[in-house]
Amino acid sequence: MDTYLSLKDHVYNFITGEINAGNLKPEEKVNEQRISDILNVSRTPVREALIQLASDGFLENVPRKGFIIKGLSDQEARETYMILGALDGLAAAAACGKIGEKELKEMQFYIGSMKLAIDSDNLDMYYKQQEAFHQVYTDKCGNQSLIDLLHRIKNKFLRKSYSLYGDESMKDILNSTNAEHEEIIRLFEKEDAAGLESFLREVHWRVDWAYMETL
User: Fold this and answer.
1) Three-state secondary structure call for residue 108
2) pLDDT over 70 (residue 2)
3) Residue 64: which pLDDT band, with cuts at 50, 70 and 90?
4) Max CA separation in the chain (angstroms)
5) How far is the C-alpha of 215 from the C-alpha of 213, rounded, in Å?
6) Are strands 59-62 and 66-69 parallel, antiparallel or unpaired?
7) Which alpha helices (H) appear in 40-73, and where do they start and end?
8) Model's pTM, two decimal places?
């Protein structure tokens, strides 16, 4: 364990990781003793983490039932995509002109990795490469508050795992999304800040795809 993180923080990160990986499902009760046993910690930091997770919107503390994984409604998903589109577009516009050949090659590499992940039904890899792609220009935006806000929203609301194996419709969606990554690179090459902001807000984060976060 990293010594600079408290036990509560370690438990918090473990539970959010389980939620994002799909190991803890919406409406499922959190088993405090199981987490305590897995992490070899007392119930106290587990309870502290659960209270914090409920405060942050991951869990709901239901009387006489305990802490329940909170699902994301269709409306909440659509609203979140609208917010992310605006913020991600803002970050891309701010990074425009700061993206050089090195960053463009990095993003192109991640596009290839995402294509490989889709073809091989490796959604863990897809998510990680997709996250890394967007992080390249987000890190260049020069606004740490914006970077932190995007990270918090994505970590809280976006799924880290999808059911892909044998689902051709999902593969089509992800391939289409990956093609949009190519357009993002093209707009960076043109240094089209307004185009980037509009494309990310209106196309890449279009609310029609928000339902995938609720599946």
Assistant:
1) helix
2) no
3) confident
4) 58
5) 6
6) antiparallel
7) 43-55
8) 0.76
